[in-house]
Design a protein that fits this description.
423 residues; alpha+beta; Helix Hairpins; HisK_dim/P_dom; transferase; EC 2.7.13.3
């Protein structure tokens, strides 16, 4: 090759730094995009897995919530979830719905609509504002009147808990109520029964004391008389006199025991045996008045027909009349007359014994015929009888098919009225 064939050498320089650098950056970006793509893919997968877990948790919570709701609705005790300061009813079971219906809660805001819950609302406010748990036993709630206008008092054990649904604090309260009215009323009835038994025990104790005292006197007199007779056997007149006193005391004891046995038979619901014969009630009244006048003086007034015949157990009628007359003397105005009135009304005969003095209170008039009953005003009186006299009167009269009643008023005195059938 000839040396003169190339005369010049052309040299061109092109700066490709930017291209190279761009290519490098592109490669780097591609790597970064690829890496970010992988990260996004991993993040999406994590999000998908998280969503699956969240959906599962939501499903579990939903099932649990539905289960708890169903359990709440099935609980037989009143339970409710109340939201906000006004205690808006968020959830309530059937028992609570019925309870609030009694309170006439006509809308969902318990604080403004519920009647009868004025004692409950302060408890709800305390739990809502302070977050404390409150339990109250036997809270009396008076519900509004029904169609008849009658109100009803019920007793409840209340349990109030705060409802913490978020980090914000108390959002509401959970109220549960237990109706314990039956327990409260049962305890009250039991206490009343125990009190009645204690009163009856006290009355029986008083009765035993009175009985012992009353029997001791004639027994002692009869015993002393029998000893005197043994020392005066040679004095026939004195023996007869003392024997008469002994017999009289023994008859008095017999009379007491007969009254006691008959009164107990009447109290137990037993029947008395009558010996019905023809007799004149006018004569019976006069005998009773004559006998009592020897002890109490001329205080009796008799108002009766000349004769009032019929068929009765006159000994039994006499016992009833004696009890009423002795009662009139014992509890009537001192020194004032006792009036015994007989009247014939055709099919029945009416016997009335009236005394003056303080009246018998209305609330005691039906109880005075109860065994061992003593009027409170006479509990500390010296006239401590057995409390069986009027019980005996009632039984003796009812054995004849008759009735006995009392009327007593201020300024009019007291009248015991016996109604006996003529036959």
């Amino acid at each position: 090759m000839r040396s003169d064939a190339w005369t010049h050498i052309l040299h061109r320089v092109v700066d490709v730094t930017a291209f190279v650098e761009q290519a490098a950056r592109t490669t780097q970006l591609e790597a970064e995009v690829a890496a970010q793509t992988l990260e996004v893919r991993d993040a999406n997968e994590r999000l998908r897995q998280a969503k699956l877990r969240l959906d599962h948790q939501i499903d579990v919570c939903s099932r649990q919530s539905e289960l708890l709701r169903n359990v709440l609705l099935a609980v037989p005790l009143p339970v409710a979830l109340l939201k906000g300061a006004g205690h808006r009813i968020e959830l309530q079971n059937i028992a609570m719905r019925q309870l609030l219906a009694d309170a006439e809660a006509i809308d969902a805001d318990l604080a403004s609509s519920a009647r009868g819950l004025h004692k409950v609302l302060p408890l709800l406010d305390r739990v809502y504002h302070d977050g404390e748990v409150i339990s109250v036993r036997r809270l009396a709630i008076v519900w509004p009147g029904d169609a008849s206008g009658e109100t009803g008092t019920r007793y409840y054990d209340l349990h109030v808990h705060p409802y913490l649904a978020s980090e914000a604090g108390v959002e509401g309260v959970i109220l549960a109520a237990v109706d314990v009215t039956a327990h409260v009323e049962g305890e009250a009835s039991l206490k009343a029964a125990l009190s009645s038994l204690e009163d009856e025990r006290d009355l029986r104790d008083q009765f035993v004391l009175a009985l012992s005292h009353d029997l001791r006197t004639p027994l002692s007199a009869a015993s002393m008389g029998s000893h005197v007779i043994s020392r005066k056997a040679d004095d026939a007149g004195e023996v007869r006199r003392i024997s008469g006193r002994v017999l009289a005391n023994l008859e008095r004891i017999d009379h007491m025991l007969r009254d006691l046995l008959d009164a107990n038979r009447i109290t137990a619901g037993g029947k008395l045996t009558l010996s019905v014969v023809s007799c004149d009630l006018r004569e019976v009244v006069e005998q009773v008045v004559d006998d009592l006048s020897t002890v109490h003086g001329d205080r009796f007034i008799v108002r009766a027909p000349v004769s009032l015949p019929g068929r009765w157990d006159c000994a039994t009628v006499r016992r009833a009349l004696e009890n009423l007359c002795v009662n009139a003397i014992s509890y009537g105005a001192p020194g004032r007359p006792v009036t015994v009135t007989l009247a014939d009304s055709g099919a029945e005969t009416v016997i009335e014994v009236h005394n003056e003095g303080r009246p018998i209170p209305i609330d005691e008039q039906s109880a005075i015929f109860t065994a061992h009953f003593r009027r409170p005003t006479h509990e500390n009186s010296a006239r401590r009888g057995w409390g069986l006299g009027l019980t005996l009167v009632r039984g003796l009269v009812e054995a004849h098919g008759g009735t006995v009643e009392v009327e007593s008023a201020e300024g009019q005195g007291t009248v015991f009225r016996i109604r006996l059938p003529r036959q």
